[in-house]
């Protein structure tokens, strides 16, 4: 019998947090249903693919990280295609489609995808399907789902074209392409699924995580195909119980002492801001510059790990060692044992330090949970939440409130997934970055940082609110050792603990190397952190070189109330008195007299952008006439966008140019690294 050769295509991904990877894996898995074979590789596995000789269609799925940077595992690839020596027909033979993931809350939306696309085109590659730009700020699925749906037809047509061009795939095209196999219709699939369709539960008046209302509870559902299992996990009893002290050792990871903890806000402030001082004197690799940030490694909360162990029925096996291997006959393309889970660690270690157990379960995870849910009402609701028809409910009850798997399992008591499923679906526990809020010249051997304790409110499915993982953990760690400004430090304060940290590389968010260059800093709330470092450094430099020329410095700061959450007030006023800070512009969003006209920002600057507008002439002068720099730090969701729009307005008005020209000027400033952002959301 002749062996059938299925037409092949290539899927390449670059992924920071695993989203692009899981979409790419999904494409590779589905290929078979379309009579195709997908060769899946990560962009950094360049031994597995060869674009220089590739004749099959290539699908790229890439995310963007930081300030428009490629993900770590796409970095080398992006660098390699940017080489100026490549000729304009280097990729003439290449046919590609690209799905770019990004977040419009950050600058340089989908920049990595856009860069790859631009270079592919400059090097002669041909696009066979329009590029998708998915926005995590509003929900990736809004773009990803329809993009994936159209992809198969586009691949088929691309292969068809190649075939008609004399390609060897000639007779294979269109062999067995199903109409739409991504969404197996529940209404028409298995008998058990059909029985689940009837709303078996009483129709509730209001929808919630566990209850739906018409029309959703009465509709036929399109649920995603069941993700194939790919791991075998076993637990072995061991003789000795290890003590878990922290994440696994890495060269760059240091266990440093918290030497001071200060609460910067008053007790009645809406958010609690804390400053921690770390003693890094013993670690030369922690030597930092103002503008640098560093990672804090935090564990999952012991109570949540414990609860999860109970919920999985594994409380008595917590000290067993976990062995993970790849399922031999798995259908999952590119399946790998997660690299972030070391072999032979205990189950307790795995749940404490390796998996982000609070991550929001993706739809594929919900789909997999359906198979382990006994109660038909709960099964139906889980199906709804991962279905096309239930997308709005998924956003409302799962994604927006950042529901965790534990909260989901609590709401769906008849769901009992095996441990394997959690290891297959939960991502790596990420360290949390924080900006240095000090200069080593002012505080030798010390590193300061500032954070707000994140408070996540209760919601449907979460009866009690919770704190952010890292900030909540730090808050608990340092209490009751926290001191309040103005209050004398007691010599009997309880000793503070140590935490695991490592420095993050950064080369651009730094004060201008030439001290005569003027610069503007915009940093409301904890966004002021790096600028405290900038100004401490500047003050030290001024004292050492009193004759040197120093450019003007501006700081735009904002908070809710002057008396409650004006962070670093004394220090900032001190910088002004010493002449280190030329202009300090502060606004308070909630301190208003009743008779105040709040309709115009001129009458009442509430937010940093209002103060920028009030000083537009100076801003333009520094940025566009004196070749100065502008730094923005803090909240990515609202502030950074508002500041960007205000800058556009300022440029338009001051230079009398149109929107397009203002955009070009701002883009130019970014390119010259004179408009820099360090933002988070
Ligand atoms: P997590 O447990 O990670 O929870 C945060 C998540 O909870 C949010 O992403 C959101 O999904 C969810 N959430 C938050 N509020 C709500 C809500 N009301 N309802 C529902 N869900 C909600 N932070 C600082 O405070 N200071 C800094 O100097 C600083 N520097 C940074 C520098 C960089 C380069 C980056 C990338 C980030 C920085 N951050 C900083 C942010 C910081 O890394 C953490 O993200 C932040 O402290 C929250 O961490 P967490 O673990 O406590 O919260």
In short:
With 681 residues, the protein is of the alpha/beta class. Helix content is 31%, strand content 19%. Helix 19 (639-655) crosses helix 20 (659-671).
Task: Give a quick set of tags describing it.
681 residues; Rossmann fold; NADPH-cytochrome p450 Reductase, Chain A, domain 3; 4 domains; five-stranded parallel β-sheet; 23 strands; binds flavin-adenine dinucleotide; S-adenosyl-L-methionine; CysJ-like_FAD-binding; methionine biosynthesis; NADPH_Cyt_P450_Rdtase_alpha
Please, could you describe this protein's structure?
The chain has about 675 residues and is α/β, with parallel strands linked by helices. It folds into 4 domains: about 10-195, Flavodoxin domain (Rossmann fold, 3-Layer(aba) Sandwich); about 230-240 and about 300-425, NADPH-cytochrome p450 Reductase, Chain A, domain 3 (Up-down Bundle), CATH 1.20.990; about 255-300 and about 430-505, Translation factors (Elongation Factor Tu (Ef-tu), domain 3), CATH 2.40.30; about 520-680, Nucleotide-binding domain of ferredoxin-NADP reductase (FNR) module (Rossmann fold, 3-Layer(aba) Sandwich). Helices cover about 30% and strands about 20% of the residues. The protein is built from 20 helices and 23 strands. The strands form 6 sheets. Strands 14-11-18-9-10-15 form a 6-stranded antiparallel β-sheet, with helices on one face. The protein has a 5-stranded parallel β-sheet with strand order 2-1-3-4-5, sandwiched between helices. A 5-stranded parallel β-sheet has the order 21-20-19-22-23, with helices on both faces. Strand 3, helix 2 and strand 4 (about 95-100) form a beta-alpha-beta unit. Helix 17 (about 610-615) runs parallel beside helix 19 (about 640-655). The chain is globular. Its cofactor is FMN; FAD. One of its GO terms (biological process) is methionine biosynthetic process. One of its GO terms (cellular component) is cytosol.
């Amino acid at each position: 019998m002749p062996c059938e050769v299925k037409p092949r295509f290539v899927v390449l991904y670059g992924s920071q947090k695993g989203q692009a990877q899981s979409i790419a894996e999904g494409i590779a898995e589905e290929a078979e249903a379309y009579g195709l074979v997908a060769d899946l590789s990560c962009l950094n596995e360049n031994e597995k693919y060869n674009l220089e000789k590739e004749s099959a269609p290539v699908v790229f799925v890439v995310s963007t990280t930081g300030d428009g940077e490629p993900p770590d595992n796409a970095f080398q690839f992006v660098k390699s295609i940017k080489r100026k020596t490549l000729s304009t027909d280097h990729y003439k033979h290449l046919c590609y489609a690209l799905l770019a993931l990004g977040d419009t809350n950050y600058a340089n939306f989908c920049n990595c995808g856009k860069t790859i696309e631009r270079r592919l085109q400059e090097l002669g590659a041909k696009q066979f399907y329009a590029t998708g730009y998915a926005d995590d700020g509003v929900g990736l699925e809004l773009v990803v789902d329809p993009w994936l749906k159209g992809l198969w037809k586009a691949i088929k047509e691309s292969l068809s074209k190649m075939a008609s061009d004399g390609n060897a795939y000639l007779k294979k095209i269109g062999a067995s392409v199903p109409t739409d196999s991504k969404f197996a219709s529940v209404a028409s699939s298995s008998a058990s699924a059909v029985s689940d369709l009837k709303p078996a539960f009483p129709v509730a008046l209001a929808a919630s995580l566990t209850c739906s209302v018409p029309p959703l509870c009465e509709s036929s559902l399109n649920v995603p195909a069941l993700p194939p299992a790919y791991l075998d996990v076993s637990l072995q009893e061991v003789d000795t119980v290890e003590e878990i002290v922290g994440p696994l050792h890495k060269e760059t990871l240091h266990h440093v002492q918290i030497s001071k903890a200060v609460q910067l806000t008053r007790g009645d402030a809406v958010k609690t801001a804390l400053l921690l001082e770390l003693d890094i004197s013993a670690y030369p690799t922690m030597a930092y510059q103002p503008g640098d940030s560093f990672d804090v490694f935090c564990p999952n909360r012991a109570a949540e790990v414990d609860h999860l162990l109970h919920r999985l029925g594994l409380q008595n096996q917590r000290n067993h060692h976990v062995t993970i291997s790849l399922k031999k006959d798995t259908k999952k393309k590119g399946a790998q044992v997660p690299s972030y889970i070391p072999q032979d660690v205990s189950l307790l270690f795995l749940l404490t330090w390796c998996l982000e157990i609070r991550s929001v379960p993706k739809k594929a995870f919900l789909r997999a949970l359906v198979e382990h849910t006994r109660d038909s009402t709960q099964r139906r609701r889980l199906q709804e939440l991962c279905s096309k028809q239930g997308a709005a409910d998924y956003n409302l009850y799962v994604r927006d409130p950042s529901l965790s798997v534990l909260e989901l399992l609590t709401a769906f008591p008849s769901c009992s997934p095996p441990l394997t499923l959690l290891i297959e679906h939960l991502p790596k526990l990420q360290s949390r970055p924080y900006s240095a809020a000090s200069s080593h010249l002012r505080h030798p051997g010390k590193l300061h940082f500032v954070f707000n304790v994140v408070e996540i409110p209760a919601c449907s499915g979460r009866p009690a609110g919770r704190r952010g993982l890292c900030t909540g953990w730090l808050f608990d760690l340092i209490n009751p050792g926290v001191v309040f400004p103005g209050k004398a430090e007691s010599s009997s304060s309880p000793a503070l603990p140590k935490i695991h940290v490592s420095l993050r590389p950064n080369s651009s968010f730094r004060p201008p190397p030439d001290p005569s260059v003027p610069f503007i800093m915009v940093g409301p709330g904890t966004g002021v952190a790096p600028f405290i470092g900038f100004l401490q450094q500047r003050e030290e430099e001024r004292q050492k070189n009193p004759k040197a020329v120093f450019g003007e410095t501006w700081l735009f700061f904002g908070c809710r109330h002057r008396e409650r959450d004006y962070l670093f007030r004394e220090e900032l006023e001190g910088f002004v008195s010493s002449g280190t800070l030329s202009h300090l512009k502060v606004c308070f969003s909630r301190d208003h007299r009743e008779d105040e006209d709040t309709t115009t920002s001129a009458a009442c600057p509430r937010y940093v952008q209002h103060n920028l507008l009030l000083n537009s002439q100076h801003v333009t002068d520094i940025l566009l006439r004196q070749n100065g720099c502008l730094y923005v730090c803090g909240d990515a969701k609202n502030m950074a966008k508002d500041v960007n729009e205000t800058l556009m307005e300022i440029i338009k008005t001051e230079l009398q140019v149109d929107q397009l020209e203002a955009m070009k000027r701002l883009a130019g400033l970014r390119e010259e690294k004179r408009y820099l952002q360090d933002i988070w959301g």
